[in-house]
Write a structure and sequence with these properties.
Layout (H helix, E strand, L loop, with lengths): L18 E2 L6 E12 L2 E10 L6 E7 L10 E2 L17 E5 L2 E7 L10 E6 L7 E2 L12 E8 L5 E7 L8 E8 L10 E7 L6 E4 L5 E6 L6 E6 L29 E7 L2 E10 L6 E7 L10 E3 L4 E8 L5 E7 L7 E6 L10 E2 L7 E9 L2 E9 L5 E8 L2
Antiparallel strand pairs: 1-27, 2-3, 3-4, 4-5, 6-7, 7-8, 8-9, 10-11, 11-12, 12-13, 14-15, 15-16, 17-18, 18-19, 19-20, 21-22, 22-23, 23-24, 25-26, 26-27
Pfam family, one: BNR_2
Protein name: BNR repeat-like domain-containing protein
């Protein structure tokens, strides 16, 4: 049965974690955040307002001590370039593979709140950046958003996003392209699904066997789905089961995507997913996994309670997983985290990482050699947002 694995009850109070607020030179308002853990470092792409800059700017920072200290920012966009439009939920994206890095974001266009994707690349570990081309060459509307990005082991960049080039109005199309030169030039795009939800974030991962996977929200019903392209193939597969077959029928957009992680076992690759549904009879956040490349998924396991929202998931190994999410309360929207030490079969009780009156949003979790690190943005007194992080031991 669909609901047999749901956890009953509300989230316990738990114990607050130790939260730190990284200080980046000149940055006083954070609009967008992406984090990547790779080769012993944590890399972050921040969009926001910097002192002496007239508009929102994109900057790269790196920490080599698990987030305790951060090197000075390197600006990806200059003071005279098009202002960055990226915001939480429609974040600028960063992909890292060794010394090669790619950034993709939405920039301000001619009309307010719209604009094209821009790209930039670095081949020296983020010390310098140069502009790439717009990956969406086939969209005459010049309005693309919600990018999802990854680099594979061969240095190829893979990118998915949403645009309404078909002018449907109540839906967008899910597009994909790749770059074989690290993000400088992009191939003609492919439509993975012509009609998807208009404003939910997507996630793209390159699996251990080099299969490309894109997690996105469909339109009818409004459940999450997975598009897969096997290695060395030009054909995409979108005929797998919904990632949580909730049959949620909804008019509008919930502004909530999902999260995906992959682990390797002797039997093959296991996909782990965290998805949200607004289904009236059982709203909330759910964990599922698949051992057959998304053809079928485990019964949904409810994370927290019906007010849990906006989660992310990461894996250190085939057995050690963790997830983070927020919960809407009368006091605020604190951040919680849970861990599994048996590959997702059992999960710890949620641990609250922030004070209950914290107004946090869009948590991200990454796996490092010393444990998990949870990042988020939160409202600060006087307006605007800052970014924060907390350790979450294995």
């Amino acid at each position: 049965m669909l609901w047999t694995a749901i956890l009953a009850g509300s989230i316990p109070a738990g114990a607050s974690g130790t939260v730190s607020y990284p200080v980046i030179d000149g940055l006083f308002k954070v609009r967008s955040l992406d984090v990547v853990a790779e080769a012993g470092a944590i890399h972050a792409l921040l969009a926001g307002r910097f002192a002496q800059r007239p508009a929102d700017t994109l900057a790269y920072v790196v920490s080599r001590d698990s987030g305790k200290t951060w090197q000075p920012p390197v600006f990806v966009t200059g003071p005279d370039t098009t202002p960055v439009l990226a915001r939480r939920g429609n974040d600028a994206r960063l992909a890292v593979r060794g010394q090669r890095m790619v950034a993709v974001w939405q920039a301000q266009g001619e009309l307010p709140g719209t604009g094209p994707l821009h790209s930039a690349l670095s081949q020296d570990g983020g010390k310098t950046w140069r502009s790439g081309t717009n990956p969406a060459s086939g969209d005459s509307t010049n309005n693309q958003s919600y990018p999802a990005l990854a680099l594979d082991t061969k240095g190829q960049a893979h990118l998915a996003w949403l645009d309404d080039r078909d002018e449907q109005g109540d839906a967008q199309g899910l597009r994909y392209t790749q770059s074989n030169d690290g993000g400088h030039h992009w191939q003609p795009e492919t439509t993975l699904d012509p009609k998807v939800c208009t404003c939910c974030w997507n996630q793209l991962q390159v699996l251990p066997n080099r299969t490309v996977a894109v997690l996105y929200r469909d339109t009818e019903p409004h459940d999450m789905r997975l598009a897969l392209r096997p290695p060395e193939s030009a054909r995409w597969r979108t005929d797998g089961a919904a990632v949580g077959d909730f049959s949620w029928h909804f008019t509008g957009c919930p502004h909530c995507g999902g999260s995906l992680a992959a682990t390797r076992t002797p039997q093959g690759t296991t996909l782990h997913s965290l998805v949200w549904t607004g289904r009236e009879t059982a709203p909330g956040l759910y964990y599922l996994n698949s051992t057959n490349a998304g053809k079928t998924w485990s019964a949904p396991l409810r994370v927290g309670d019906g007010d849990s929202y906006g989660g992310d998931i990461a894996a250190i190994s085939a057995t050690k997983l963790a997830l983070a999410f927020t919960k809407h309360t009368d006091q605020g929207s604190p951040v919680y985290a849970m861990r599994s030490r048996d590959g997702g079969r059992h999960w710890s009780e949620p641990l609250v990482l922030t004070p209950p009156d914290t107004e946090a949003d869009h948590p991200r979790i990454v796996a490092t050699e010393s444990g998990f690190r949870v990042f988020w943005t939160e409202a600060r007194p006087g307006g605007g947002k800052t970014w924060a992080l907390a350790d979450f031991p294995i």
